[in-house]
Fold:
Amino acid sequence: MRVLGAVTIGQSPRDDITSELQALLGGGVTIVEAGALDGLSQEEVTALAPAHGEGVLVTRLRDGSSVRVAHRHILPRLARQVEALARQVDAVLLLCTGTFPPFRVACPVLYPERLLLNFVRGVAPDLHLGVVTPDAGQVAEQQTRWSAVAGRVTVCVASPYGDVNRLAEAAHALASRKADLIVLDSLGYNLAAKQKVRDLAGIPVILPRTVLARAAAELL
Structure:
């Protein structure tokens, strides 16, 4: 039995993610979870909110609610969880598509951002890429990073933890703007969201969960 670590920037367990990952990985892999916000009270989590102009990350708490946190607050907490988990697993998955530096640990670490960027670079370097991101505070950053691997980029906002109608609006908007391919840029988006956007937009949709699971399966 292989053991896979899964580290969220929010609170564990993230059954909404790991249940779909487990189905793709099969019964020969056990998933062990940890979260950067584990053990924190609501007041302590609130104190990690981004100030104006800071990098924004959106995640889920144990009670199912969503929260905005500053990247600079999350990074050291995330690093500690990755380091602790790496000592007991065969590989570590980061359950966030944000930008993070390399973590110096003894086992492989799968960074969703790097996997997604290289995937799109390989299949759509000259195409019009649609990106759906959870928060309006992420739009400028998303435009910049995805423009490095696609010919043209259009970013729309629809939180995976919010009104499902916003996701439909984003799908229609990207279809109307003639996007060739869509990335749902958060681990919060699930298989149902991918199918919904694909049905409404009528174009291929890349889901971080499935890209991550298939990369992990190749290692294990």
Remarks:
- DSSP finds eight helices and ten strands in the chain.
- Helices lie at 15-25, 42-46, 71-86, 112-123, 139-147, 164-176, 191-201, 208-219.
- The first helix runs from residue 15 to 25.
